[in-house]
Amino acid sequence: DEQLLNVNDLVTSFRTAAGKVSAVRGVSFSVNKGETLCIVGESGCGKSITTLSVMGLLPANGEITSGSIQYKGEELTTKKSEQMRRLRGNEISMIFQEPMTALNPVFTIGYQIIEPLKLHLRLNKKEARSRAVELLAQVGISNPDKRLKQYPHELSGGMRQRVMIAMALACNPSLLIADEPTTALDVTIQAQILDLIDSLKEELGMGVIMVTHDMGVVAEVADRVMVMYAGDVVETGTVEEIFSSPEHPYTQGLLASVPNVDDADAKLQAIPGSLPNLNEKITGCRFHPRCPYAMEQCSQEDPPQFKISSQHLSKCWLQQEVKVNDAKGRAYS
Ligand code: SF4
Ligand code: MG
Q1: Is there an atom of ligand 1 within 6 Å of 294 CB?
Q2: Confidence of residue 170 (pLDDT cuts 50, 70, 90)
Q3: Rounded to the nearest whole angstrom, what is the distance from the C-alpha of residue 106 to the centroid of ligand 2?
Q4: Residue 92: strand, helix, or coil
């Protein structure tokens, strides 16, 4: 598998009134060509900040404090903003949750797709228009000629998200980052958009990073999963590993579903307590105030990543006991 992105020990901090706080605390992961990595966790866990760090789109008070982000072997953390802008136009694309805010209400869909094509790909008007028609068809929009003349408010939410995906694909990106792309959509449309992203990934061989708080979305599209909590990666694994043998108590909490609740945020609230504030000082495991398995050690020492399989890691002291038991030949017997 060809590696596209390799993030190593990324720390991203913000200057706040309360001082400097870390929103991402030493995150490592990679994304290969043709695979979808889902980053999952509650809002505020650092998943969006992780992807904004990769894109070079951190807010003004944010900065990458340490660590490395390599894209196709090139270090991104030292690139100038102009170089990052070029990369975002040509190599890495991003789609967001609410397409209405990303589309300009006063311009037609056609104008908004065609202008960047002229600018970034240096196509003339006719070429750009036919590429726009092709892109809309590619994302399953019928009657693209008619759609190009319409304004964002004339389209449904699902249709607007398709337009955003078409725009994201305009420059043939190798890496697509989708941050909660279906959260604002109803369930049926959500499934269609996820299918679309999945089939485009196959068709175009893109790497995809999907940011979500919804384990249903993860089950639908992920090849690999990275679970974040309070700025830490707490568990990583293949989608099979995460769903069939979740090891971290937080992941187990995410998966414990509340019957008859469609709202994923409500499901997350099934875990008592809430995310700590960024500037809250917590010693030991950052999940320990909410963890049903917390032991003495948990409030004192921050656990390392324990390796369960070649892909499966859990940042939890419970794994230490499993390992000790393994060594004694007692576990899983
Ligand atoms: Fe719970 Fe301790 Fe594991 Fe943290 S290290 S998740 S507190 S058992
Ligand atoms: Mg977010």
Answers
A1: yes
A2: confident
A3: 27
A4: strand
Is 298's C-beta closer than 6 angstroms to any atom of ligand 1?
yes
3, two tokens: 């590696």
Report which bound ligand comes closest to the CA of 47.
2
**Predicted pLDDT at 282:** 85
Handedness of CA 191, 103, 94, 38 (dihedral sign): negative
ipTM (interface predicted TM): 0.95
For tokens 């072997």, what's the residue? 73
Regarding the beta carbon of 268 and ligand 1, being less than 6 Å apart is answered no
The pTM assigned to this predicted structure is 0.90
Q: Which residues of 24-60 are buried (b: 16+ CB within 10 A; e: fewer)?
A: bbebbbbbbbbbbbbbbbbebbbbbbbbbbbbbebee
> Which residue pairs, CB below 8 angstroms and at least 24 apart, start in 235-239?
235/312, 235/313, 235/314, 235/315, 235/316, 236/29, 236/305, 236/311, 236/312, 236/313, 237/308, 237/309, 237/311, 237/312, 237/313, 238/311, 238/312, 239/38
Which residue owns the Cα nearest ligand 1 atom 6?
316
**Closest ligand 1 atom, residue 292 Cα:** 1
Distance 179 CA to ligand 2 centre (A): 7
pLDDT at position 331 over 90: no
* 13-51 confidence digits (pLDDT tens): 999 888 899 999 999 999 999 999 999 998 889 999 999
Q: Which of 282, 287, 306, 323 to mutate to test ligand 1, by most ligand atoms within 8 A of the CB atom?
A: 287
Q: CA nearest 38: which of 202, 318, 243?
A: 243
How many helices (H) and strands (E) the chain has is answered by 13, 12
- Centre of ligand 1 to C-alpha 243, Å, is 19
User: Is residue 287 lining ligand 1, measured as CB closer than 6 Å?
Assistant: yes
